[in-house]
Amino acid sequence: MRPIQKITSLVATAILVAGGLAFAGAAPAQAKPLGFKQMNSCGTSSARGFARCMAVVRTTVTSLTSGASVSAAAATPSGLSPANLQSAYKLPSSSAGSGKTIAIVDAYDDPNAEADLGVYRSYFGLSACTTANGCFKKVSQTGSTTSLPAKNGGWAQEISLDIDMVSAICPNCKILLVEAKSASFANLGAAVNEAAALGATAISNSYGGSDASDSSYGSYYNHPGIAVTASSGDDGYGASYPASSHYVTAVGGTTLKTSSTTRGWSETAWSGAGSGCSAYNTALSGAASFSTGCSRRAEADVSAVADPATGVSVYDSYAYQGYSGWLTFGGTSASAPIIAAVYGLAGNAASIDNNYPYTHSSGLFDVTSGSNGSCSTSQWCNARAGWDGPTGLGTPNGVSAF
């Protein structure tokens, strides 16, 4: 084999194996995983009153045989595909969701959002979702389609992740992208209110900051008849807002792999998934019978894949830190829009509240192993039967829990 062919083969093999499973039917490696490096798209901290996005992108993968690291950016997808996600969560994605609108709230502008969405949907054989056909709409927090926020590469990665996950789970849903002018809770909250005013069925919030009180920000997330989801965080044990709000569905994270079980997939708690007890906000009434151990609001409620080691395919052309094209993402920024889109598939948001999964937990895959750190009360950071902090009640098994 000539040297250039060997290098090309190594890169292709490393990306395929690290991705685990690019498409339904592809065979992931079952040996020990390749090493990889990752980057938090919006940094690792935020000032009080501000949030950071929860997207985590794989930046390199490392060969087991040579130890060489290669870029994780690729010409073709290497993470989980729409078909993989629909299979893992037993979703009626091809037949449900028509007429529903999933809103994505993020900070700053992704100038390539619609074009990149077109690449993702075309590659995976999903119907076009454009401004022209009425499926896609991008507005500012004031509803303007022309006066948009400043561009930002890190948040553009977040936006691409969010709209691709909505497409993967609910390709028949419309997508409304509302861009806040900054990452302050005041501006992100104004964007949530705008999404609600524009008729969203569900609103996904893939960002978070330190635990905060609903007396300060809760009015932004209190929209009866609209399912509002929020990422639980990517830093392991410790509550995050708005996931700790009484008014949202807090979405934790898992590691998702193929298996020989009847389901065909297995899940464990992702080590980065946020969890904890709010110091401020009222507990959900539905959680009372699940022994959360929290006197106030416990997070998370439900979960979905978030581990970048078993991450999802995303297309983003607005280069950030040198990365663009097909990338593999994790973080609870992946799981929050997945669950928002499941609410869209279920079509019940107008008549339910965020207690609903607690009274319909039989419609979830219970995740019973894995941990996100150390804590004084075991279920706050260790997966177990029933409710636990990192994965909540579990992951979707169809749509009956939503």
Q: Report the biggest beta sheet as strand number plus sense, adding barrel if it closes.
A: 8 strands, mixed
Task: Supply the CATH superfamily name.
Answer: Peptidase S8/S53 domain
CATH architecture label name: 3-Layer(aba) Sandwich
Termini separation comes to: 53 Å
> SSE string, helix = H, strand = E?
HEEEEHEHEHEHEEHEEEEEEEEEHHEE
- Average pLDDT reading: 91
Under CATH at level 1, the class stands as Alpha Beta
Helix content percent band? 10-25%
Q: Number of helix segments?
A: 8
CATH topology: Rossmann fold
- In total, the number of strands is 20
Overall shape: globular
Q: In terms of structural class, how would the helical and strand content be classed?
A: alpha/beta
Summarize the helices and strands and which ones pair or pack.
Blueprint: H1 3-19, E1 35-40, E2 52-53, E3 56-62, E4 69-71, H2 82-88, E5 101-107, H3 113-123, E6 136-140, H4 153-169, E7 174-180, H5 185-197, E8 202-205, E9 207-210, H6 214-221, E10 227-231, E11 240-241, E12 249-258, E13 265-269, E14 276-277, E15 298-299, E16 302-305, E17 312-320, E18 323-330, H7 332-346, H8 356-359, E19 364-365, E20 395-396
Helix pairs in contact: 2-4, 3-4, 4-7, 5-6
